[in-house]
Amino acid sequence: MARNRGNRPSLAQDVLNYLNARIDEEDILVYKRHVLEQRGGQGAYTILVFARLVERACEKLKIPYGTGSSMNKKQTTGNGPRISIADVVLFYSAKFPSDLAPAPSTFGNHRSIYLRAKTCMVNLENRELNQEDQTFLRSLRAIVHTPLAELAMVQPEAYGSLSAFRMRIDLLEKMFHKKVKAKEN
Questions:
Q1: N or C: the chain end with fewer CB closer than 10 Å?
Q2: What is the pLDDT of residues 91-111, one digit of tens each?
Q3: Residue 185 above 80 pLDDT?
Q4: Cβ neighbours for 8, distance < 8 A, ≥ 6 positions apart
Q5: pTM of this prediction?
Q6: Per-residue pLDDT, 94
Q7: 8/93 Cα distance (integer angstroms)
Q8: What separation in angstroms does the CA of 89 have from each of 104, 130, 136, 170, 177?
C-alpha cells in the first residue's frame, strides 16, 4: 500500500485492478446507495452494511474475515495479488473518494461490532427475551439476512447511532453469558 492524502494509505494499482475485476458491480451500487448516501450521521446501519460488503468480498476472495483475522495480513488470491481485508476496505475508498470512508483501523472496530452482533443473534435465538430484546434481535436478523440487493426494505433508522448499537450488543452479550453461567450451576 502506498500513502497519499496525509496518512491514508492507498492501493497498489495491481490490487485495485484485481478488486475492480472481482467485486461485483451490484456490491459497489449497494455501497454507494446504502453507505455513502446514508452517511449523514455515523449510524450503525451504514457500518453494518459496509461490514457485510467487505465480508462478502472476503468470502469471494477466500480471505479470512472472522474475529481474530488480521486486517493487514495479505492472503494469496488464486492468480491475483496478495490482498488483505484492509485492501478491500481501501478499495471502496478508491472507488468513491470521500472523507466519509473509514480508515482500515476504524473498520476493524466496526467489523468487530458486526461480528459480535451476529454472535448475539445466534446465541440468543429461541431464548426467552423481553419485547424490546426480541425487537432488537429481529432488526439484527433483517440487517444480517436481507440480501444486499434488497436492503431498501430495511429501515436504517431502526439501528440508531453506533454507540447506542454497541451498548445494546454489550447488554445482550451480558445476558447470554448470565444464562450460560446459570445453566452450568
A1: C
A2: 988 887 777 778 888 899 999
A3: no
A4: 93, 103
A5: 0.87
A6: 86
A7: 10
A8: 6, 37, 27, 25, 32
Residue 83 DSSP class: B
Residue that the C-alpha cell 495480513 belongs to: 73
> Where is 4: in which H helix or E strand?
strand 2-4
**Three-state secondary structure call for residue 12:** coil
**Selection from 108, 88, 75 nearest residue 22 by Cα:** 88
pLDDT for the residue 68: 84
Angle at which helices 85-95 and 104-123 cross, to 10°: 110
- pLDDT value for 178: 65
Contact 66, 48 (CB under 8 A): no
Q: State which amino acid sits at residue 139.
A: S
DSSP string for 90-126: HHHHHHS--TTSPPHHHHHHHHHHHHHHHHHHHHTTT
Taking the domains of the chain in order of start, what are their residue ranges? 2-184
**Average pLDDT for the chain:** 86
CA pair distance 2, 173, nearest whole angstrom: 39
